[in-house]
Write a structure and sequence with these properties.
34% of the residues lie in helices and 11% in strands. By secondary structure, it is α+β, with helices and mostly antiparallel strands.
Length: 307
């Protein structure tokens, strides 16, 4: 029986696989027999022979037809390769020198950085202001490194972002009280602007030659216009004469707030901390977002209809 089974096994049809050796096809007669297996791995069957890189003579000759130009920058295929390279270079320098001693932000060297329009002309790419702000933030952090230990390569990398002007030469012209005892302050909000003249008096207010009640019908707008005087208890010690233009009543009232606060600080500079706590010194940069095409407003989408 043993010879018969062995003889029948030899007569089984064979098939050849590209990865395995020639093995017999299992049929119903030999289904109980153990399955044959290979002693080599599939990777050895399909892998190319190893290349010896120890000698240049043994390397295969290069194929010139399949050669291609490799970009020098890994950011070549991005939309803004020069900007991306500059940002990555600054971030690499920051990681390299972040352990160096720093100075407080108020004691850091004063530097005038390039504006976003100047940087666009430098790199020749349409860089967004928000993206360029990331570069400025990294530059400010690098500028806080102590000047005594500033590395030369870091100074050279930061030089291309500096403007060729003396930052100490730009001095804000101080506001003064004229011969009539008036102090002038200019305020802006949205598309409105206000020019305010403040003089010591009894609390009279004129806006474009009219009383404040005629110009601003809402009580909230009247309080906003005179909020710097109310917050400092100076409502009955100064007369206000203002010229407003542009925008609506809310924008004009808040423009008067900033202009009145600036004029009041000319008369009494010691009131600046109190005015800052009252929120009268900071310029509000918020504006109405523009309408987008395909939308009803800035972000509102039309109602979705299935059919």
């Amino acid at each position: 029986m043993a010879s018969k089974s062995a003889f029948s096994l030899q007569l089984q049809p064979l098939y050849r696989c590209s990865r395995c050796r020639t093995i017999p096809v299992r049929s119903k007669q030999n289904a109980s027999l153990p399955r044959p297996f290979t002693t080599h791995s599939s990777r050895q069957a399909i892998a190319a022979p190893p290349i010896d890189f120890s000698s240049q003579d043994k390397l295969p000759p290069p194929n010139v037809q399949n050669a291609r130009v490799v970009p020098a920058s890994p950011s070549y295929f991005s939309g803004r390769p020069d900007f991306t390279d500059n940002l990555l270079n600054l971030q690499t320098l920051l990681r390299k020198y972040q352990a160096l001693p720093t100075v407080p932000p108020g004691q850091a060297p004063r530097v005038a950085w390039r504006t976003v329009s100047q940087y666009r002309l430098l790199v020749g790419e349409p860089v967004r202001a928000s993206r360029y702000h990331q570069v400025i933030e990294v530059l400010k952090r690098l500028n806080q490194i102590h000047p005594a230990v500033m590395p030369p390569d870091l100074q050279e990398a930061m030089q291309i972002y500096k403007r060729d002007i003396d930052p100490f030469a730009v001095v804000k012209r101080p506001s003064v009280i004229d011969k009539y005892g008036r102090a002038c302050g200019v305020g802006r909000r949205k598309s409105s602007s206000a020019k305010v003249f403040l003089v010591q008096g009894e609390g009279e207010v004129l806006v474009n030659g009219k009383s404040i009640n005629q110009v601003f019908g809402r009580i909230h707008d009247r309080e906003s216009a005179l909020w710097p005087l109310k917050a400092t208890n100076r409502i009955d010690k100064y007369n206000v004469w203002a010229l407003v233009s542009g925008g609506g009543t809310t924008g004009q009232a808040e423009a008067l707030t900033l202009g009145t606060a600036k004029a009041l600080m000319v008369h009494e500079p010691d009131l600046k901390p109190a005015l800052r706590r009252a929120g009268c010194v900071t310029r509000d940069p918020r504006r109405v977002e523009r309408k987008k095409p395909g939308k009803l407003k800035a972000r509102k989408m039309p109602a979705w209809v299935k059919r």
